[in-house]
Amino acid sequence: MASTRDIRRRIKSVKNTRQITKAMELVAASKMKKAQQAALAGRPYAELMASMLAALADRVEATQHPFLSQREVKTRGIILITSDKGLCGPLNSNVLKLVTDIKTPAKYAVIGRKGAQFIARTRRELLADFPANDRTSFADIKVVAEFMVKQFLDGAVDTVEIIWPRFRNTLVQVPTVMVLLPLSSVKDVIADLRSDAGLTAAPAAKAVDNQMLFEPDAATVLESLLPLYLNREVFQHALDAKASEHSARMVAMKTAKDNATKLLGDLTLEYNKARQAGITQEILEIAAAQFAA
Known about the structure:
Number of helices: 8
Shape: elongated
Oligomer: single chain
CATH superfamily of the largest domain: ATP synthase, F1 complex, gamma subunit
Structural class: alpha/beta
CATH architecture of the largest domain: 3-Layer(aba) Sandwich
Number of strands: 5
Strand order of the largest sheet: 3-2-1-4-5
Distance between the termini: 31 Å
């Protein structure tokens, strides 16, 4: 059995750990609430964009936008979103497993230090890396999206895909792969936007169409709207990943705090047993000394 001094030292260490993890849990919970609100705030915008594209769909059926051109996939372009920091459970490792499963040639643009370190360590081709700030701004994410779009249009990559931890709820974050480019059709874009907005049934196309007039023409509006859609999708998924990160960190810190509390109870019981054993031993020694005298 360990000495009472060693047990007291361990108890003090575990108490400090519990205090730290509790503080980190509270901080993560506060950030998680803000991140979830930011992710949900994009739903009305997604709904409006879906409505505009629904009104455009029948008018530009024959339009061949560069984003709609299909070609043979030789090199995949992937936007990988991870966190800058750890202590968020298996969140990053689960996302990076999807990267490990990719066996075909691919080039990566990474948001988050953990992903950049993994790509460099595994000797995959890293085009660029960007920080994953707590305050995810559209301007920062737009740079990433436009960078990968340029790679796609220049022919350096044949797809633009995104890998991120999709936020389901506080306890569940699902690693997900989504193809952004090339787009198969405008109707698929509408379906993605309506899914982001949390909608199930599409509004009547004629009703939407009657309410919108496009200047100078529908094809020109589509030319500008599809790049905006792509920037918005990357931004929405970045917000989603940030909500996942803070949720996973809060759960991880709560688990660590609960484990520290349980360990503290076990150590306190062990300390009391050791102290009681020491007292009993002293009483026996005193009694034995008196008996010998």
